[in-house]
Design brief:
two-stranded parallel ribbon, alpha+beta, 32% helix, 75 residues
Length: 75
């Protein structure tokens, strides 16, 4: 994948600060790579969350964050 492509759609990466399956360093590294593109790239870390961001308690905050991000970028 061409991480520098400006032709791709906006990208929101998420990370759970307490994720022991895919540690937060993985999306942070992906963010650094994709940030080289002029396309919108953002990272949102949920410090007190584990791997199951969308199904664990507090999933609503994750969903609302994603929906707000979509609205912000008119998507």
């Amino acid at each position: 994948m061409d991480t520098k492509s400006a032709d791709r759609g906006p990208l929101l990466l998420t990370a759970g600060g307490k994720d022991r399956t895919v540690g937060p360093s993985v999306p942070k590294q992906a963010y650094k790579r994709y940030q080289k593109s002029s396309a919108v790239t953002e990272l949102k870390e949920f410090p007190d969350r584990g791997h199951s961001l969308t199904i664990d308690q507090g999933w609503r905050e994750v969903a609302e964050t994603a929906l707000d991000w979509l609205k912000q970028h008119a998507l």
